[in-house]
Amino acid sequence: MQCILVALILALSPMVALAALDKPLMPGAKVAFLGMTFIDMSTEGAYNGVRADETARIKLLEAATRDRFVEERFVILSNDPVAAELASTANPADCYGCDVRMAARLDADYVLVGEVHKVSNLVLSMNLVLRDVRSGETLRGLAVDIRSNTDDSWLRGIRYILTNHFFKS
Questions:
Q1: DSSP label at residue 32
Q2: Would residue 20 count as lying in a domain?
Q3: What total number of domains does the chain contain?
């Protein structure tokens, strides 16, 4: 009987975890958007280093994300008070909670971070995560794979995440 109960709890735990991803977000909440991090795991990147077009695309994604959050009536906070720590953090999306700690210092309700992983010039993966600053709980999070390394494909990826998960009606 105990084994059945343990098996049932383990089977249902992913569903309980996913339930948090549909909680309504607070209207007018303050968001600390700590940006998108580009991670180039491609052979091309290993040989050729940073590409200007990909650096510009990160800025394009950040602007599109900020614009959508403002359109949805969220307040995007300035990162100036944590600028030094943010600049010295390699990846705010993977820093053992430094994203939540920085957002708390900004008096944010939510913290938003994202990543773009380049596997090759054809295959990229993009993710965006929104956490509650007080609890650290993930409220929204989605990863998508995109094909082709263009402005259009990157924007299509972030728009998909925002429209179909973050702000689905």
A1: E
A2: no
A3: 1
Cα distance between residue 98 and residue 121, in whole Å? 31
Domain span holding position 132:
25-166
CB-based burial label for 38 (10 Å; 0-12, 13-18, 19+):
buried
Reported as a pLDDT band with limits 50, 70 and 90, residue 82 is very high
**Residues 54, 153: Cα–Cα separation, whole Å:** 12
Does residue 32 contact residue 108 with C-beta atoms inside 8 Å?
yes
51, part of any domain: yes
Q: What is the CA radius of gyration of the chain?
A: 17
> Rounded to whole angstroms, how far apart are CA atoms 111 and 35?
10
Give tens-digit pLDDT for 99-129.
Answer: 999 999 999 999 999 999 999 989 999 999 9
Question: Please, are residues 60 and 139 in contact by the beta-carbon 8 Å criterion?
Answer: no
Asked whether the beta carbons of 105 and 25 are under 8 A apart, the reply is no
CATH of the domain at 63: 3.40.50.10610
CA distance 65 to 140: 14
161 inside domain: yes
